[in-house]
Amino acid sequence: MNKPLLLSLAAATILGTNLSAESMYDRIQMMELQMKQMQQELESLKSQESKATSDEDGDEEEVAQANQAESDDEEDDDEEDSIEDQIAEIQENISDLNRNTNGNHLKFGVDYRFAIENLDYKMADGSKQKNDAFMTNRLWMNMNWAATQHLSFTGQLAYNKAFGQRTDNDTIGYNFENFDWIANENAYDDIVRVRSAYFFYKDSEFLGADIPWTFSVGRRPSTNGHLINLRDDDHAASPMGHSINVEFDGLSAKFGLENITGADGMYLKFCAGRGMSNASHKFTAAPYANDTDVEPNIDLIGLIFVPYDDGQYSINSQYYYASNLIDQVFVGGVPQNQFYTVGGLHSITANVVANGIGDGINDFLDDTIFFVSGAMSITDPNADQGMLVSNPGESKTGYSVWVGTQFPSLISEEGRWGLEYNHGTQYWRSITYAEDTNIGSKVAARGDAYEAYFTEPLVEDILSLQIRYTYIDYKYAGSNGFFGNTTGNAVEITNNMTNASNYVDKAQDIRFYLRYRY
Question: 166 and 262, same structural domain?
Answer without folding.
Answer: yes
